[in-house]
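Reopening this one. Same input as before:
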Amino acid sequence: MTYSYPLKRLAGDYIRAAAGLLLTGMPLLLLSLSPLPFAILLLLAALFIGYGVHTALCHRRRVNVNEDQISTEPDGACLYWRDLREVKLEYYSTSKESTTGWMQMTLRSGSKRLRIDSRLDGFQEIARYAVTSAHANDLFLSQTTAANLAALGIDVDGTTKAPTEHSDG
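Same output, byte for byte:
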């Protein structure tokens, strides 16, 4: 299956990037500023440009998932489920009541790391693949990750295991 970030879920990011660039860029173009305010506004404008570029790259990204691997286009990142060594699912709240926010899943395999967030179509299906792989690879899922998976409606029974003690002898 191939998943992507739909425009409707990224529209707010595009709007914030454009608004920030407008608010910082217009004074740069229209006013004669002393060096310090000019430098500050220029830095802020660069940050908003970077945010817009990041959003565009996210929008362009495709995540391919099958029973063997997860990969992304156009950057070519690839992680085989059999090599998975860590699954981490975090929730970021945007309000005091914690009723709105997003989740970010980090998958690690050796030196490879892949992050996706819950705005991605198919996020729950990918999380299910990750849990199945974590179970097959006998990985520990933290209480936070297990709770966040449960909030997605994903059964983690049998996949949450205590970390093993390493001994030298």
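So the earlier flakiness isn't reproducible anymore. For the record, The chain is about 45% helix and 20% strand.
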